[in-house]
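Our consortium's second objective concerns turning raw sequence data into structural hypotheses that experimental partners can test. To show how far this objective has progressed, the report includes one record in full. It was chosen at random from the queue rather than selected for favorable results. The single chain below, 470 residues long, was entered without modification.
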Amino acid sequence: MTQTDLEKAPEPQFPKPKQWFGVRHIQFVILFFATIIAYGIRTNMSVGIIAMMEKDPPDPSIPTYPDWTQKETILSAFFWGYVIPQIGAGAVVKKFGPKWFLAVTTAINSLFTLLIPVMAENLGENGVIACRIIQGLNQGFLFPSLHTLLGKWTPLAERSQVASFVYTGGPLGTVISLPVTGAFAGSKLGWPGAFYLYGSLGLVWTVLWGFIGADSPSKHGGISKEEREYIEGASITSEEKKELKTPWKSIFTSAPFIAILVAHSGQNWGFWTLLTETPSYLSEIMQYDIKDNSLLSALPYLVLWLLSFVFSPLADYLIVRKYLSIGNVRKLFNTIGLIIPAIALVALGFVDSSQKDLALVLLVLAVGFNAAVYSGFNVNHIDLSPNHAGILMGITNSLSNIFSIIAPLAIKAIPYEQSDPILWRYAFCISAGIYVAADIFYVICASGEVQPWNTEGEDEVVEEVQKDAL
């Protein structure tokens, strides 16, 4: 929560319910698992593709495709679909309600996870690429749906804690997905088992959500009056006021907003380079077998998940105690989250297979300290414009994910084999350079102040409200 939020937050209009676990907590838990499963589906291909292309599977009956040549394309294909719905998804979900959009898109996402082994067998690489694009397209509705649901279900006094709980399901899902996929790949069930597992979990989640989930407390038949009043009385909902028009021109000509976009783009390049390619690096250069590989690939993301609970309260502490301004806190943590990983990546490029422990430490540093950006650019949208924060996140999340597509493909363009350490030196140093450049631009242009265009057109809205009242 930002300093502005703390200053403006109204006191709850209704007392907190006596029961410690209510209907709203059930919503939060099931949304947390939605994030875990979604990130599992998103990331298990990083390990799965290695097993799919092995020459000698654990069991001869497991199909493998060592002649495939589009590994990086498969890894990036998810984001081809993911970038498309981001900006418009928020508006659509808001208008028609998030429950069934989340249910339907999760079901389709899960179905095409189940179909990956079938498509691989019958349509080859292109079939898998098609599945990944469709998975990404449907996951494009995940965060707009979650954001809308949390806005409806979370009392203002609990919003920071709840949002952190639900969204950290992402890195936790990654931590779980990589070793689970590796365990399947190294067993007699083979790599198809991992996709069947996550596809099935997604479908089970969809059924549970259909029975348990609701768009808002007012649409849930089992919630108590006391809890509903506590949630709705302590929240400021969009229905209570006319909406401001989105100041598109002011947004796209705002230097602080462009700073967020640049930082988000640089972050995505480095983050997804590491997430998609770390298993290949550990396999080709460090010569780990697939079970050890998947466990070690997950370790940096476990550290990232844990450090996110260190950096976020520390950032809020510095702001609330006024040791630093909001803008300087954002710049400080953004720098920690990008520059320390950049240094680790450069060092990693010069480590050879005889220094496995050092390589692992550097990977942990490169990924783990990246958690600081959650307190940097990642929350800066709210600082600039509380009224349009959702739109700002949609824009940056959409455009920055173009770099999630390009990053794995850029490695393919480097003219060296994956077993050649020079390839990885180039890949890591390029990512480090992008991290540094993005952070320098952010530090120069970012701001923690609410921008004038946050209330652009507010006078006209007030006049409309007054006319409606008459």
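The partners drew two points from this record. The chain has a mean pLDDT of 83. Residues 290-320 form the longest helix (31 residues). Both points have been shared with the crystallography group to help prioritize constructs.
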